[in-house]
Amino acid sequence: MTATVAATKALVVCDGAGRTFGSGPTAIVAIHGVTCRIEPGQRVALTGPSGSGKSTLLHLMAGLDHPTVGSITWPAIGSRMQLRPGPVAVIFQGPSLLPALDVVENVALPLVLAGADDDDARRRAHIALERLDLDSLGSSLPDELSGGQAQRVAVARALAGSPRLILADEPTGQLDRATGRQVIDTMLDASTHSGAALLVTTHDDTVAENLDERWRMVDGCIVPDMTAVPGGEATCSA
Ligand code: ADP
Ligand code: MG
């Protein structure tokens, strides 16, 4: 364990990062000063009970939210503005596909937003879908998909931009165990294939067991976990 970390070529570095919602007597400290880093290719399960701060920390790492104390940096990527679309992909727990677009259009959309022309975006969307054996669903609308299929399409959408870091917030939370297993396998295969680092929040131990290491959150801190791989550097300084 180390109390501070040097900003080398990690994908994301949290240095005493905390997040408090509100102020005064009703303030909620969701995250205390967390110090951790994710290196290229690292695959981490972030576990802990509901309300322990997993989503808040993931949102901070994704640059979707700002810490109220401490700092978050992305040394291997650049500034917050450079995170998306591209280097950092986020997968959410619930439905996230746009209902009016078919599967190919949903997967292609972030690429178009990143400046790709339509043909190139569609071509790359097809490649991502093929890699996950989802190409037969290309012209389906989200309403026509099962929960597991929709979540795997969301994984394909995340991969289409060739991310270096995939942040998945309870990606299996609304799926039955077998379907959840398929989604986790898909993410692990994708990370093995592309070398992308992976942080998956979950309160399901059977999901966490599939990742290389485990960080455990309790009351807004990352605490030592006896099952974690030795050498993990996540700490909480508050
Ligand atoms: P987890 O993902 O582990 O269930 P969260 O990060 O969602 O935990 O929440 C951590 C704490 O922060 C909880 O007490 C939650 O109620 C609170 N919280 C999260 N988001 C907000 C918000 N936007 N406004 C106020 N409180 C919030
Ligand atoms: Mg959550």
Q: What can you tell me about this protein's structure?
A:
- Helix 5 (177-194) links the parallel strand 6 and strand 7.
- It is globular, with a radius of gyration of 18 Å.
- The chain is 29% helix and 24% strand.
- Residues 228-232 have low confidence and may be disordered.
- By secondary structure, it is an alpha/beta fold.
- It has helices spanning 54-61, 103-113, 118-131, 147-160, 177-194, 205-208; strands at residues 12-21, 28-38, 43-47, 69-73, 88-91, 165-169, 197-201, 213-218, 221-223, 235-236.
- Helix 4 (147-160) runs parallel beside helix 5.
- The protein is built from 6 helices and 10 strands.
- Bound molecules: adenosine-5'-diphosphate and magnesium ion (MG).
- Residues 54-55, 169-170 line the site of magnesium ion (MG).
Task: Put the structure in a nutshell.
With 238 residues, the chain is an alpha/beta fold. Helices cover 29% and strands 24% of the residues.
Helix content: 25-40%
Total of DSSP H or I helical runs spanning 4+ residues: 6
Strand content: 15-25%
Average of pLDDT = 88
Major sheet: arrangement of strands = 5-6-7-3-8-9
Bound molecule kinds, no repeats: adenosine-5'-diphosphate, magnesium ion
